[in-house]
Amino acid sequence: MAGKCTDYIKDLNDYIDGELDDSLCAEIEKHIGKCENCRIMVDTLRQTVSLCREGKKEKLPATLEIKLSNLLKKKWDEKFGKKGV
Ligand SMILES: [Zn+2]
Known about the structure:
Layout: H1 5-17, H2 22-34, H3 36-55, H4 62-80
Zinc ion binds next to helix 3.
């Protein structure tokens, strides 16, 4: 099952938390291996998560997911024009 970047965004939180299925985990790692956007996304998310955890022990707010999603779409638009994603 191969998905678009936006399909992975919702799983990246769990991936970083280590709460994802092994098979999904492997799939995301495979995708990240060839997708620079998602690699940047994971790095950014990881940093944000560790910052969050230093402050308070809470899950990332849903708004952050939306922000990341928009950021990724913007990057795609910049790279491939408005028809991407
Ligand atoms: Zn991607």
